[in-house]
Specification:
27 strands, mainly beta, Neuraminidase, 5-stranded antiparallel beta sheet, 2 domains, 5% helix, 5 helices
C-alpha cells in the first residue's frame, strides 16, 4: 500500500466502513449531496480515527475537519464519490432513460480502443490501436497527437477483429508532477506483449516524448488474446491484464501455469525496482514469497481480461473476461483480496471446459455474472465478446449511480446491474436510445462519468448522459 495524503487509509479494511454507512445521504435544495452530511455524527463513521491515521499525523483531529477528501488517497481516484456511500447507491432501484453525446463531434476516429484521463484533469485521452494517443480538450481533439508510436506498432492487417496494437494507457497517480504514464501494446507479428513507461514532453505538456521504455515483456505465441489493459489501483500499484496467449482453448495451458505471466492479473510497483527488474514486487502480493510462482501474479485463470476497472468508491475490482465458445463472464474481486483463481481453462464461466485443471490447491472463484452466446435467452443479445465497463459513481445521472455498466463487442446492447451484499441486483438492458455496435471499450473521466468507445463501421467516442 502506498502512502496516502491527509488521513489516508492504512488498510483497505476502512473501505468496509465507507461502504457500510447507515442512513440516507443528505442533499441541498438543488439535489446535490451535502459535504457536511458526510461528517455529521463522525463517531458513527469513524469509530477509531487513530486506527488508520499514518504515523506522524496528529490523531486528535476535530471531527468537523474530516472532509470527504480526507479519506481519499492522494494518488487514487478523484471526483465527487466520497460524498455518498455505496449503501446509498445500493438502495436505488430502476434505471433512467439514457442517450449518447459525441465527445468530439465531426472528428474522424479510426481505431479507438480506450479512453481515460490523468488524475485531477478534465482532459480525455483516447488510445488508437494503430499507435496513437489523442488528447481531447473542451470537446475538440488537439491537432497533434499526444503520442505517436505507429511506426513501432506496425500495420494492423487483421481488419476490425485484429486484437494487436496499442491497447492500454494508465497515467501515474502523480502524473501532474512527474509526467509518467504507462502503455500496453503488442509488437508486430505474434511475438510479445509489452508494458512500457512513457514521459510527458518537457517541451509541451500536451505531448509525450516519443521514446517508450519497456519495463515488462511477455513472450506470446499468437495474435489474439493479448489483454493489454493497464490501470493503477487505489493502492497505487499498476495492474496488468494478460490474455492466455491466443489460439483456442488455452492450447499451452498458460492460465493455470504459475511460471508464466499469460492468463493472469499482474500487480507491480513502478516506483521501485527489485531483483534486476525495472519494477518492484509489492510485499503483499499473494505469491511474493511463494516458491515456483511468479511474484507479479495477483490472480490466476483468465482467458482474455480485455477490460477491467476499480469501483472508485468501494475499490472492488470488476473484470470482463472474454469467453470461448459459449459463455462470457464478469469476475469480481473484493478490494485488496488477491490470490483468486477464476478458473480458465478448467472452467468457462461456471461451466466445465475441456482444458487444464486448476492449479493444485486452488478453488474456483466463480463469476458474479455470465451470459450465454444464445441471444434468445440473454439480456446481451448476440454477444460473443464481453466488454467490461465501470461502476457509475458520477453525479450527473443520480438514478444510475452504483450500477456496473458493461456490453459486448458483437452486440448492440449495454447492460447494467448493481452488485450489493454479494448478489447481482436488477440486471437490466439499458435504454440508450440507440444501438451501440462495435463496443470495444468503456472509459471514465475524472468526474466519474462513463463513455463508450466503438470502432468498425461506426467508430466513435461518446459520453453516456441522461435523456
Amino acid at each position: 500500500m502506498k502512502a496516502w495524503s491527509k488521513l489516508g487509509w492504512i488498510g483497505l479494511g476502512v473501505v468496509g466502513v465507507m461502504s457500510g454507512c447507515d442512513g440516507e445521504t443528505q442533499v441541498d435544495d438543488t439535489g446535490t449531496p451535502r459535504v457536511d452530511a458526510f461528517v455529521e455524527g463522525a463517531d458513527a463513521f469513524v469509530p477509531e480515527v487513530d486506527a488508520f491515521v499514518p504515523e506522524g499525523v496528529d490523531a486528535g483531529i476535530d471531527a468537523a475537519a474530516l472532509t470527504p477528501d480526507a479519506f481519499v488517497p492522494a494518488d487514487a481516484f478523484s471526483g465527487p464519490d466520497s460524498a455518498m456511500s455505496a449503501t446509498d447507491d445500493c438502495m436505488r432501484t430502476g434505471y433512467p432513460a439514457l442517450s449518447l453525446v459525441e465527445v468530439a463531434p465531426g472528428h474522424d476516429w479510426n481505431r479507438p480502443v480506450f479512453l481515460t484521463h490523468p488524475p485531477g484533469s478534465s482532459d480525455l485521452y483516447v488510445v488508437d490501436a494503430r499507435g496513437f494517443i489523442y488528447l481531447v480538450r473542451d470537446g475538440a481533439v488537439l491537432d497533434t497527437p499526444f503520442l505517436d508510436v505507429s511506426s513501432m506498432i506496425g500495420r494492423l492487417t487483421g481488419g476490425v477483429g485484429d486484437e494487436r496494437g496499442l491497447l492500454g494507457l494508465a497515467f501515474h497517480p502523480d502524473y501532474a508532477t512527474n509526467g509518467r504514464f504507462f502503455v500496453g501494446y503488442t509488437v508486430p507479428g505474434d511475438g510479445e506483449n509489452v508494458v512500457a513507461e512513457g514521459h510527458r514532453s518537457t517541451a509541451s505538456a500536451d505531448q509525450a516524448d516519443p521514446t517508450l521504455t519497456p519495463i515488462l515483456t511477455i513472450a506470446d505465441f499468437a495474435a489474439n488474446h493479448n489483454g493489454g489493459m493497464v490501470a493503477f489501483g487505489p493502492d497505487g500499484y499498476l495492474y496488468i491484464g494478460t490474455g492466455d496467449g491466443g489460439g483456442g482453448g488455452d492450447p499451452q495451458r498458460t492460465s493455470q501455469d504459475p511460471d508464466r505471466l499469460l492468463g493472469k492479473m499482474l500487480r507491480i510497483d513502478v516506483d521501485t525496482t527489485s531483483g534486476g527488474m525495472m519494477y518492484g514486487i509489492p510485499s503483499d502480493n499473494p505469491f511474493a514469497s511463494t516458491a515456483g510462482v511468479r511474484p507479479e501474479i495477483w490472480a490466476f485463470g483468465y482467458r482474455n481480461p480485455w477490460r477491467f476497472s476499480f469501483d472508485r468508491l468501494t475499490h472492488d475490482l470488476f473484470v470482463g473476461d472474454v469467453g470461448q465458445d459459449l459463455w462470457e463472464e464478469i469476475d469480481f474481486e473484493p478490494a485488496g483480496s488477491g490470490g483468486h483463481n477464476y478458473g480458465w481453462s478448467d472452467f468457462e464461466g461456471t461451466h466445465d471446459f475441456a482444458g487444464a485443471t486448476l492449479r493444485a490447491g486452488d478453488t474456483h472463484t466463480t463469476p458474479i455474472y455470465e451470459y450465454h452466446h444464445d441471444s434468445s435467452t440473454e439480456l446481451v443479445r448476440g454477444g460473443i465478446s464481453i466488454t467490461g465497463g465501470y461502476v457509475y459513481r458520477g453525479l450527473a445521472i443520480p438514478e444510475l449511480r452504483g450500477a456496473y455498466v458493461f456490453g459486448d463487442y458483437a452486440s448492440a446492447d449495454v447492460v447494467g446491474f448493481r452488485f450489493c451484499g454479494g448478489a447481482v441486483q436488477e440486471p437490466t438492458r439499458l435504454d440508450l436510445g440507440t444501438a451501440v455496435s462495435g463496443l470495444v471499450s468503456f472509459g471514465e473521466d475524472d468526474a466519474g462519468e462513463i463513455y463508450v468507445v466503438t470502432f468498425g463501421s461506426g467508430s466513435n467516442v461518446r459520453r453516456i448522459v441522461a435523456r
